[in-house]
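Entry details:
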Amino acid sequence: MRLTKRSLSVVVLAGLVLPLGAQYSSPTRAASTCASRIGLNVSGSSGANQEGDIVRHELDMFMKANPCITTFFRPIPTTYEQKIQTEFASGDEPDVMYVSPPMIYNEGKAGKLLDLNKYLAKDGVKTSAYIPALLKVFQLNGHTYGLPKDWGTLGVFYNKAIFDAKHIAYPSNNLTYDQYRTLAMQLYTPSSNPSKVVYGTMMPEDNGRFMTFLYGFGSTIMDPVTGKIGFNNANAIKALDYYTSFQLTDHSSTIPATVGDGWQGDSFGKGKVAMVLEGGWLTPYLHNTYPKIRFGVAQIPVGPAGRADPVFTNAWGASVNTVKAGTAAAAAKLIEFLTGPVVQKYQTDIGFALPTLPALQSDPYLKTHPEASNLFNSYTSGKLGSFGAYDSITNKALGDAITKVILGKQTAAQAIPAAAKTLQSQITAVP
């Protein structure tokens, strides 16, 4: 692989305060004698300015601890997976990179990603230290192609002012599906003036929110390895009936477009809806965009089959070509550092992301930030939130099923098997 130093752009943090000394200049290293120096190209999907600066700081931390290894960071702000695939095809992929779940079934399955198992064993890093539901996403056929770097799941974000005005107790972490539905009806405030309507909740027409109820009613969704569809069953029909009943029966819910928004996070921030099912990414957005809102976060309601929290995660992984280049051990060491306790604690303490190490459950930041703690403590009920090569077509099929029921074109009993049939016809075209 060609090793060239990429230019590093400096961007301004948005909404995060980093510790003193977190500038992004070349690190001051301890005096050392290196038999040889190793250079590693590093890339990540860094659409948000803050994330790029955080990664640079973490790489500086690594180089200070490992003075014989130099890293060159090249963020890819848009269409990350497509650009990485192009670079893999040309043999110019980075040494170490963000690895998304679909890449495990594309690049990983094709033998293009480095299996980390022997390096982890040599370095004494135990995979059991990571949240099992997250690690599993990056393992295939006994190989470990990435270590999870951070993660997110869904919680019930609630507007305290709306609850207080109606003298309703805030949601608990043990809310049942029936109680959540009742709560949405109690919080719904109709008005002849559309601009003054306050909805109890929102149930968008996308599988990203619907999947928690599929799992909660006892259905599976999709096996990312075999492509076997798991949602063509009675429990999935019950889930879709429940999900659409908020809008069709109770009128306590709507979709963001109805109130002129493109995302329910904005509807929530503007006070147009009392509760939304969102992830930790909403917290900094609210602080930055709607700083006056008072909100809390409770865990996802408990369904008939138990609590089910879809987990969304990415990993750090490496190219298998680092073996030929003689840099595989160094690449593994960097991955171990970027997903290890030092970096995980740093990211937690600045409020950037949830840690992937259960050992950080007692971290002071989590103890003093209940909204983050409630989301983190959901890891014990984590469920697959992505489906490999079948991810986009699965999400589209189920999102379309929601839309057809909302528009009255199909019942839930018709929409679920129709979605499964459509999806099955598409699976043969997926590599």
